[in-house]
Specification:
Elements lengths: L8 H20 L5 E4 L6 E8 L2 E5 L6 H10 L6 E6 L11 E3 L20 E2 L9 E5 L6 E4 L5 E2 L9 H11 L4 E5 L3 E5 L6 E2 L8 E2 L2 E5 L8 E6 L6 E4 L4 E4 L13 E21 L5 E6 L2 E5 L7 E14 L10 E8 L59 H87 L8
Parallel strand pairs: 3-5, 16-18
Antiparallel strand pairs: 1-2, 2-3, 2-7, 4-7, 5-6, 8-12, 8-15, 9-11, 10-11, 10-15, 13-14, 17-22, 18-21, 18-22, 19-20, 19-21
Helix pairs in contact: 1-4
Length: 492
């Protein structure tokens, strides 16, 4: 009796699993993604780029401020770069596989892979080439300006100046609205919104005396200052904007033991709000709470979930710091986004190729948790100006009331037109994105189907070949036995 070869469906299943894993890996990996490593803060570190499913550093040869700007924008830090350099120069130790590339970014690209000269090749033979590194600009950064305004000088009482120490000193000395730094060691405080003439951001890239990972303005001889609001890194603030960023106390430095923080976000009516941490680095006994009504989310030092969505009118973010904590943790950077609000079109970023000068508009004072754009003046020697607001008289004339009514109607119509234009632009962009999504999805599905089919067919062919070989061997054995059997004698 002929024995048939045993069926092996497990081999076919294994082949299908291999095909699925390969296809899933192909879909998950996107060449040109970037990340920063070597620091607990997501705004700084060694630059790594993904290529062919592997992550590798970028050789610092030719690495400049424009390249760093593109990486920061790709990671979602719209303020751009603060510093660009090597991993050892900025203090981000560690090594990784080097992907050499000849980047020539202009600075306005959306992704690093869009830059001219982007070409990845793996080569670790050049031992002298260091990995590229950067520090992205801090949220709330007001810009780099040239001016000689007279502000309160604090440099003589500060040692090892950093951005956070300068802001803390300005808050301790009085109710100043702004802090500015220059020359790596000059710290000044003021409240005048007239900053001078705005200059390219890379002119404010002199490392702070107290930290190689921060930039404290530009050359002091040229009166180049970087400006920050003194509300940055505060322990309490109230936010009323649809979207915003909350940072831990003493940001960008380490938060201090025993100092808690409470930040409140208030809306006019119930909203769905998404909270997403760019990073969170807490000591083991410290925690963070996000509360809305009866719902409270408590986040510890070992929490791995970095995104939450809550519903409510008012939200409270509270940092609980133990008195026995240590001053060695980076804290957090938390973004909140109103999911029910329409996303406005982003403003065009200023061109960094030339210095820009703008006329000074009148702005109201800063409110807690709100960062207002600075006023740019055409003169670098102008004295600080005082901003005053007037209340309309209750006995206004009829003509003035009519004028105000017409102005309000015109403003409303202008707003409606802008909203319609914004909606049309968003609709067009969403249509294009949807078409690209389906095209790319179809290509990926076709590749997956092809890979799966090829692997399954190969497995089936192998199985059939084994079956045929086994049947031939069995037939040969039967033929041999027949030839060896003696024939029976003839009957009489």
């Amino acid at each position: 009796m002929t024995r048939r070869p045993s069926q092996r469906p497990s081999s076919v299943i294994a082949c299908c699993l291999v095909a699925f894993v390969l296809s899933a890996h192909f879909v998950a990996c996107i060449d040109g993604d970037v990340r920063l490593v070597g620091s607990p803060r997501s705004i700084e570190g060694r630059v790594e780029v993904e290529s062919g499913g592997a992550w590798g550093g970028i050789c610092s040869d030719g690495w400049d401020f424009n390249d760093a700007n593109v990486v920061c924008h790709q990671l979602g830090y719209i303020e751009g770069a603060m510093l660009a350099g090597t991993s050892s120069g900025l203090g981000f130790l560690g090594t990784s596989l080097l992907f050499l590339t000849e980047l020539e970014c202009i600075g306005g690209e959306d992704r690093l892979s869009d830059c001219p000269g982007y070409q990845i090749q793996v080569d670790n033979s050049r031992g002298a080439c260091e990995g590229a590194a950067l520090v992205c600009q801090l949220p709330g950064y007001l810009g780099c300006f040239s001016g000689v305004l007279t502000w309160s000088e604090l440099s003589n009482i500060l040692q090892d100046v950093t951005i956070d120490r300068c802001i803390a000193a300005c808050n301790a000395r009085g109710s100043y609205r702004f802090a500015r730094l220059s020359g790596g060691q000059i710290c000044q405080c003021g409240s005048s919104p007239s900053f001078g003439t705005q200059v390219p951001a890379d002119r404010c890239s002199v490392s702070c005396a107290g930290s190689s990972k921060q930039a404290c303005g530009g050359l002091f001889d040229n009166r180049i200052f970087s400006y920050f609001p003194t509300s940055l890194g505060s322990t309490t603030s109230t936010y009323t904007s649809d979207n915003g960023i909350i940072v831990s106390p003493n940001f960008p430095g380490f938060y201090k033991p025993g100092i808690n923080g409470v930040w409140t976000i208030t809306y006019g009516f119930s909203r769905r709000v998404r909270f997403r941490f760019d990073y969170i680095d807490l000591f083991m006994d410290d925690s963070l709470e996000i509360r809305s009504g009866d719902t409270t989310i408590r986040i510890g030092h070992d929490e791995n979930v970095l995104e939450y969505t809550l519903m409510g009118v008012q939200f409270e973010v509270t940092l609980h710091v133990d008195v026995n904590s240590r001053e060695a943790n980076a804290g957090f950077l938390l973004r909140y986004t109103d999911l029910d609000a329409a996303t406005p079109a982003p403003p065009n970023p200023p061109t960094q190729a030339e210095e820009t000068t703008q006329a000074p508009p009148t702005v109201p004072p800063l409110t807690a948790g709100t960062m207002t754009a600075p006023i740019h003046t055409t003169s670098s020697t102008s004295a600080p100006t005082t901003v005053t607001t007037t209340t309309p008289s209750m006995t206004s004339t009829t003509a003035r009331n009519n004028l105000l009514t017409e102005s309000t109607i015109a403003s409303t119509r202008s707003t409606d037109i802008r909203l319609i234009q914004t909606a049309a632009t968003m609709g067009t962009n969403q249509g294009i994105q949807g078409l690209l999504f389906w095209v790319i999805g179809g290509i990926v599905f076709a590749l997956w189907l092809t890979m799966t089919t090829v692997i399954v067919v190969c497995c089936l062919k192998k199985r059939r070949s084994a079956k045929s070989s086994s049947e031939r061997d069995t037939g040969s054995r039967h033929i041999g036995l027949t030839r060896l059997t003696p024939s029976a004698p003839p009957q009489p």
